[in-house]
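Ops channel
N.P.: pipeline sanity check, posting one input/output pair.
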């Protein structure tokens, strides 16, 4: 069984269970192709993929915005089609688009969103959410007077207004300033600590690397990989050893050709890339062969490949 397939025995640990999900539009375009995915209760799950890969379609189906062609989605045990209201009440969604009622105040906008889910009035909760998002001072402002960053904060407040167990963040930091981005991630971590499950899509892959517990990669409507982030970095990551040479080299000697070394910094740096999971890294033999070739170095450093580099490599394999 592939790591992203649905496991019936894991149901108690699953807040979202997706089985055989497909979506084909009237044009014939198949946006999702038999997606199986289990998202665990209380985790931060990053869904990565290029534009058009199916990220937003998948989120839209789970949130009940788009009807699937086939397959099944359950949220906290509630089927998204046959038990829509109960399933949707579990979910908060922060969409990409900044769509709000321009003439309403921040307070009314967020309070109204809570009421849509049949929740009784709870001013204390609304106040807490607005304060957490640095919106309290803007509570009486009309939406039309807010900056783009502040409107983004209001969208998050709306999504949290009915105290959901699952929060979808679809490109939440696109076009926002660094301060909001940091505020948002602080809030996300705090929510996760209270048991809320966070699913995010982002173009800033370094954010996924910093925030996520697990990572899923979607390409051409298919989930091609789901893995714990740390395990993914260990299994697919590569390391680079960079040697700072005592004297510049005009070219890599032929005797070192087997190592596929890269010469940089006007011949003063040699970089060797190796597989972190291989039995032998080749570093010992490289250093020996460098010495035999009369090449001396004064310093060395290593660098682990980033999640972004792993992601790009996976997509190249799928091309």
């Amino acid at each position: 069984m592939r790591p992203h397939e649905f496991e019936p025995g894991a149901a108690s640990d699953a807040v979202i269970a997706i089985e055989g999900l497909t979506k084909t539009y009237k044009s014939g375009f198949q946006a999702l192709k038999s997606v199986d995915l289990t998202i665990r209760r209380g985790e931060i799950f990053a869904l990565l993929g290029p534009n058009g890969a199916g990220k937003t379609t998948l989120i839209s189906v789970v949130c009940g915005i788009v009807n699937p062609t086939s397959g099944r989605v359950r949220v906290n045990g509630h089927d998204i089609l046959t038990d829509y209201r109960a399933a949707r009440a579990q979910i908060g969604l922060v969409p990409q688009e900044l769509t709000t009622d321009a003439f309403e105040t921040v307070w009314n906008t967020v309070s109204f969103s809570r009421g849509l889910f049949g929740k009784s009035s709870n001013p204390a909760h609304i106040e807490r959410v607005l304060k957490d998002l640095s919106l309290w001072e803007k509570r009486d402002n009309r939406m039309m007077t807010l900056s783009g960053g502040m409107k983004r904060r209001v969208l998050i407040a709306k999504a949290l207004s009915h105290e959901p167990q699952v929060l979808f963040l679809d490109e939440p930091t696109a076009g926002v300033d660094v301060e909001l981005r940091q505020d948002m991630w602080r809030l996300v971590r705090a929510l996760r600590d209270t048991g809320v499950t966070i699913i995010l899509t982002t173009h800033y892959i370094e954010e996924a690397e910093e925030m996520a517990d697990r990572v899923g990669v979607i390409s051409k409507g298919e989930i091609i990989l789901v893995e714990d982030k740390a395990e993914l970095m260990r299994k697919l990551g590569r390391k680079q050893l960079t040697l700072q040479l005592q004297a510049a080299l005009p070219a890599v000697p032929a005797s070192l050709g087997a190592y596929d070394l890269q010469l940089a910094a006007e011949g003063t740096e040699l970089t060797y890339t190796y597989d972190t999971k291989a039995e032998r890294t080749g570093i010992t033999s490289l250093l020996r062969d460098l010495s035999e070739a009369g090449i001396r170095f004064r310093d060395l450093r290593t660098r682990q490949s980033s999640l972004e580099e792993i992601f790009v490599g996976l997509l190249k394999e799928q091309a």
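N.P.: looks fine end to end. DSSP finds ten helices and 14 strands in the chain.
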